[in-house]
Design a protein that fits this description.
The chain is mainly β and about 475 residues long. The protein has a single domain, classed as Porin, CATH 2.40.160.10. It contains four helices and 19 strands. It has a 16-stranded antiparallel beta barrel with strand order 2-4-5-6-7-8-9-10-11-12-13-15-16-17-18-19.
Length: about 475
Amino acid sequence: MGTFLRSAAIGLMAIAGFSVAAAAADLSDTVKALPKIPDSLTWQGITLYGTIDVGYGYATTGAPVGGSYWGLNPQVLAAPAGRAPVSTLNTLGLSGIGLKIEENIGSGWQVIGKLQTGFNPLTGKLDDMCATRIQQNGLPASQQTVNGNGTRCGQAFNGEAWGGLKSDTYGTLTAGRIISLAGDVDWQYDPQSTMWNLSYLQFLGGGIPSFGYRWDNSVKYAYQYGPVHAQVMYAQGAEASNLHGNSYSANIGATSHGFSIDAVYQMMRDVVSDSTFRVGACGTASTPSCSTLKVTAQNVELWGIMGKYTYDLAGQGLGGKVTFYAGFQHANYSNPSDPLSVGDTVAGGYTIGLINNTAYLYGSQNQHTVWIGAKYETGPWTLSVAYYLENQGFYKISPASTPCSTNISFNCSGATNTASGSAIYAVNKHLDVYGGVVWSQLSGGLTVGYATPYQTTGLTGLIFRF
């Protein structure tokens, strides 16, 4: 089996690399003959921007694609558990459209803002993770399509939606729906940030759970003094949000002579994650409606430290530059400070039909995530490799629970290993051709529910930006 996996990974990487090189060669000549696209679509300080990505994916063990979010589930720790090889048209989940505002108002001040929404270009639907859960309610796992957690739940602006003021002297103050500090810092120190389906941090959340990635009703202040920068963020919990309790975060870092380092702390209170109702658990007498969500409420406390170093190869007689990445994050999950109730709402206004406020009644859960990687950029090419390891610690789910590290129960200790490689060729400022491969494997308690605890996936396609 190990030989098969290695062969599959090598084959997929070769196919992806060949696809990038061949497509890039053909597209370069074609694009040169097309009318020139403006570098930006800006009027009176307002810029219209967007991204469309479409491609192809193959997974050795996957599930059929749905239509309310991305296409293929490229990593094994996903829902539902993969059950057969999948070959399909695919999207990386990067497609979206938005407006950016940057308008000088004098005395060194700017009005800034962003409105953004994501969509699936293969279906035309707005990104809606909650809908992917609703669609599976009452179905056996063998009939389910790709689904998952997230903060994009069909809202008009399911990405970012914020406004504020910026000053080179006094810093930047923004308010609205903002990416959390941990999510923002993770992205900056992830070698696969531009190919997020190949990244454990970006795809499944890693140390920052995807259901707490964006904070509604939040305010953020950022300040930079020379090489040092710092940020603080606060969110007031509310209905129709994944954050129901007051939450806060802080970040400090520095950049100098090619080195960059950041530390982040984040506390999310009464944050919700959702899952699907099993067969017979909804839609019948004395059960919740199948149009509602099954939800777990929790507090999530995390901290992390990460760094990178960029080395210019010109001094060595070579072209381009190489950047090395490394990071560590710790996350602790515990019961919510203020229990939620049936009838409360989450992102997108979806209703809670069943709530678990005591998932960690007998002890909190700890997770540790580490990663390393490198990115080489030369001319139009960007080549990246990365490795991610997340360890889940044993946690008690009953008074009689005893430590374990096997697959006898989901609360046993376990690990997720993920390795990936990618190649991107920038045809011009607006068009990229990409290819990549990702391998992931589960062990211990994380294998519960997974008949095949490993998966290899190859992806290739185009990304158009304006």
